[in-house]
Amino acid sequence: MLEIMGLVAGYGRLVVLRGLDLKVPKGKVVALLGGNGAGKTTTMKAITGMAGISGGRVELEGRRIDSEASHHIHALGLALVPQGRELFSRMTVEENLELGAGNRVTGADRRARLEEMFGYFPRLRERRRQPAGTMSGGEQQMVAIGRALMSQPRLLLLDEPSAGLSPIVIAEMVRIIQRLNEAGETILLVEQNIRVALKVASYVYVMRQGRVVLEGNAETFSDDDAVFRSYIG
């Protein structure tokens, strides 16, 4: 589905990614782990055309996208749930969700997709007329994920979905990600919460200083493995 090869990227003269290699197979959840400053969010931004790329390749199902503009990449079927959610706080839940559909889903299909999101997130149906900014952090994260899913993405990018949430809400978020994957969604997940990543992912990459330093099947790692954790810190 997604393949990154030798990616070099950053912001102006600041180089953050230094030869990154990564693959996300269709229908799988792949987790990207690492401490602060490892380059995880920059990876997401580079994939979606929001960070400068000076070397390497990004391919979606064999099509090179590293020179495409952000709106073209989104139109090809990539949807990002950014860290911090970035909702329109004064708009209602339903309005935020409908914005996610863009031009990819229209008319009756848009209404059907909206109903599907309410199926995934029943709490949002109850609060569909409520301004998004008045909701709890967990509810806002549901809106952010639902907004991304409205465009029927081929690849869903989740950047720190558990950040700032309570353990109870994190457990619910894990169930949501697992359910999405069972329904066929392909997901690239950026996380600092090792336990969350290992619960939902089939494959794990660990980054440090803009490079992958460790990778493997999720079941080969343990969240209490000191060696594994040393790469995250």
Strand % is 25-35%
Spell out the CATH superfamily of the largest domain.
P-loop containing nucleotide triphosphate hydrolases
Name of the level-1 CATH class of the largest domain: Alpha Beta
Looking across the biggest beta sheet, what order are the strands in?
Answer: 6-7-8-3-9-10
Number of helical regions = 9
Total number of β-strand segments? 10
* Pattern of helices and strands: EEEHEEHEHHHHEHEHEEH
Radius of gyration: 17 Å
Query: In the CATH classification, which architecture of the largest domain applies?
Result: 3-Layer(aba) Sandwich
How would you describe what is shown here?
- A 6-stranded mixed sheet has the order 6-7-8-3-9-10, sandwiched between helices.
- It is globular.
- The mean pLDDT is 91.
- The protein has 233 residues and is an alpha/beta fold.
- The chain has helices at residues 40-47, 70-75, 93-101, 107-120, 122-126, 137-149, 167-182, 194-200, 226-232; strands spanning 2-11, 14-24, 29-33, 52-60, 63-64, 78-81, 155-159, 187-191, 203-208, 211-217.
- Helix 3 runs parallel beside helix 6.
- The protein has 2 domains: 1-77 and 154-233, Rossmann fold, CATH 3.40.50.300; 85-152, no CATH class.
- The longest helix has 16 residues, at 167-182.
Can you summarize this structure?
With 233 residues, this protein is an alpha/beta fold. The protein has nine helices and ten strands. It has two domains: 1-77 and 154-233, P-loop containing nucleotide triphosphate hydrolases (Rossmann fold), CATH 3.40.50.300; 85-152, no CATH class.
Helix and strand arrangement:
Layout: E1 2-11, E2 14-24, E3 29-33, H1 40-47, E4 52-60, E5 63-64, H2 70-75, E6 78-81, H3 93-101, H4 107-120, H5 122-126, H6 137-149, E7 155-159, H7 167-182, E8 187-191, H8 194-200, E9 203-208, E10 211-217, H9 226-232
Parallel strand pairs: 3-8, 3-9, 6-7, 7-8
Antiparallel strand pairs: 1-2, 1-4, 4-5, 9-10
Helix pairs in contact: 3-6
